[in-house]
Amino acid sequence: MDAIRSWLRRRRSNDGSERELRTDGGVTGAPEREEGLIARYRRSDAVRSAPFWLPAFLLVGLFVYGAIFWNILISLTDYSGLGDPQYGSFDLENYGRLFSETGSYSFTNAFVNTVILLIAFTLICLAFGLVVAILVDRDIRYENTFRTIYLLPMSLSFVVTAKMWLWMFSSDGGLVNVLLGVVGIGPIDFIRNPDPNVQLAAVTFALIWQFSGYAMVVYLAGLRAIPDEHFEAARVDGASLVRMYWRVIIPQLRTATVSASVVLMVFALKAFDFLRALYGSSTPSVGTDILATKMVRVAFDNNQVAYGSAIAVVLFVMAFSIVTPYLYSEYRRGAL
Amino acid sequence: MSGPDQGSTLSRVGLYVVLVGLVLFYLLPLEAGIVTSFKTTGAYGSTQPFLPAFDGLTLEKWTGAFDELSGGLFNSVIMAVPATAMSALIGSMAAYGLTNVDWRGQVGIYTLFIAGIFVPYQAVLVPLKRFWSQWVPLDVWLEPLWLLPGLTSDHGGLFALMITHVAYGIPICTLLFRSYYKAVSDEMVEAARLDGASIRRIYRRIILPLSVPMFAVALIYQFTQIWNDLLFALILIGGSGDAAVVTQELVGVGQAQEATDFPLQMAAAFVTALPTLLVYIFFGEQFAKGVTA
After folding, report:
1. pLDDT tens, B234-278?
2. Inter-chain touch B194–A3, beta carbons under 8 Å
3. Cβ atoms B268, B69 nearer than 8 A
4. So what's the ipTM on this one?
5. Of A18, A218, A293, A318, which sits 20 to 30 A from A115 (CA to CA)?
């Protein structure tokens, strides 16, 4: 208790004269002679806590931010994977090339696919997750069991789910086609369909299977945070169930919606592993590229490294145009 | 009860019907996959995908899958276990260094860390590849140091992969631990401080013992992430070779055969998924905390 009291007094006096206020007679500060700017700096919290945050800072600084910066530099060269990148002359040639490509292998096509996947996947996951969360929140028995099952696919690797859905969708005994056959719809080859929209829809469906449980748990946490009185009040007002959720409850889930959609969008941008396992390194026969797969093929399979880096920069800008407003609002909210 | 009233019996029955329907939606693909993995190639063609083949039940595909993936499983374990532990420990230390001390700028550094969670890996692949192959070619440097039997110089790539996973795990681990440490009583830390405990001593004696539940969450989350990754492995280890991890090997399983061997592919998928499935089954609560942090 003494220590806390003296700490409070120190905070009030706020001039760093804590040693005078110590009640136990101990000495915590540096010896008297070490005054001056450097000595004070050395004692400051930033420096004394450095052994704790510095290793992390160096690793993240080097491997994340340093690498991003380096990637931007490489995207301005014409590095092709042979020899070393020439940092002597920079130009925007690779960025011009992004928009000059045409056809189903083009950057534009991959960009459009990425945006479609992003929006369709995120919206359906959110809507589906919300409905499931509302159902699970209705005071059911075995709630834990249901929740555990709904979240289970998220623990699997993209590669595992890709293998599973490759089989699910296959016209050679895959479950989806067998079930479709029951209702009289002939086998459809979803994964190698000549229509790129069918392929994209199949991919989106599989990703929703994997991640809608995530939207569900986020919404469930949001619903649990709403006080019971809000449900009560709506019921007293005689609002119907649908109306109550639509007007009273869902508007209060804004924070959950925002954070879930940011994370889901980032998942969608990262869906590389899934598509790579489905389609391998070869160029898709129809235009089903997304930027994540196109970047890797261009940079590592076709050795157009600088061009691939430019695609990566676009991907990075997309991710951060989603994340920056979110982080800023979190910062304003004081959540950081 | 936080939801609205229970409603009529009929609507309760309807509710459970829908919930069980959802269970089927999430579990049927897994169930059918497992069932298929126990079939012979012959039985596969003649039975329904979600029904077992009672006459042709076999472990042949599982042993086959295990044979094909055993090298990858070994590599994944020796890479993922240390990477998981290191990223959790470094993340915990960083969270402490950025929480329980009073200095401006910590929010700035912390924000930089959090933003790191959202970086698409594509944005760093080319530099990482160059860094680990041209600047710090661990496979060359470490060659004379490999003492473990069976490891070749290829495994330098595995080491690079490990360090990369540590770096990319730190942001999320820092987030997990920091929100936890913010809740740790300030008074306790301040009191210890005024009694003359050093920053390091406070971490070791107060913070670390308090962090055990959060370590469980961080370790489970990180292990799942690292085990499941394909992209970093593909770039840093390369197509094949002795150092390939299990997800890399899984991509190639069953592709050499002329007709797709779905039972083998399903068995291989479950061999790969088994570690994270077990983690999920035993620590589902902590897993959920990690993914929703």
Report:
1. 999 876 577 889 999 998 887 665 567 888 999 999 999 999 999
2. yes
3. yes
4. 0.89
5. A218
Q: Quick check: B90 contacting A, CB < 8 Å? A: yes
DSSP A267: H
Q: Which has the closest alpha carbon to B164: B136, B128, B123, B139?
A: B128
What CA–CA distance (Å, rounded) separates B127 from B129?
5
- One-letter amino acid of A117: L
Q: Answer yes or no: do A157 and B228 touch at CB < 8 A.
A: yes
The pTM (predicted TM-score) of the whole model is: 0.87
Domains in chain A with CATH codes: 1-33 (no CATH), 104-332 (1.10.3720.10)
Number of other CB atoms surrounding residue A322 within 10 Å? 18
Q: How far apart are CA B280 and CA B288, in angstroms?
A: 9
Please give the DSSP secondary-structure letter assigned to residue A82: S
Determine which of A62, A135, A163 to mutate to test the interface with B (most B C-beta atoms within 10 Å). Answer: A163
- The string of DSSP codes covering A208-226 is HHHHHHHHHHHHHHHHHHS
DSSP-based three-state secondary structure for A81: coil
pLDDT tens digits for A222-273?
999 888 888 888 778 777 888 888 888 888 999 899 999 999 998 888 888 8
Q: What is the DSSP string of chain B?
A: --SS----HHHHHHHHHHHHHHHHHHHHHHHHHHHHHTS-HHHHHHS-TTS--SSS--SHHHHHHHHHHHHHHHHHHHHHHHHHHHHHHHHHHHHHHTTSS--TTHHHHHHHHHHHHT--THHHHHHHHHIIIIIS-HHHHTGGG--STT--TTHHHHHHHHHHHHHHHHHHHHHHHHHHHHHS-HHHHHHHHHTT--HHHHIIIIIHHHTHHHHHHHHHHHHHHHHH--HHHHHHH-SSSTT--HHHHHHHTTSSSSS--HHHHHHHHHHHHHHHHHHHHHHHHHHHHHHT-
Count contacts between A and B (CB, < 8 Å): 330
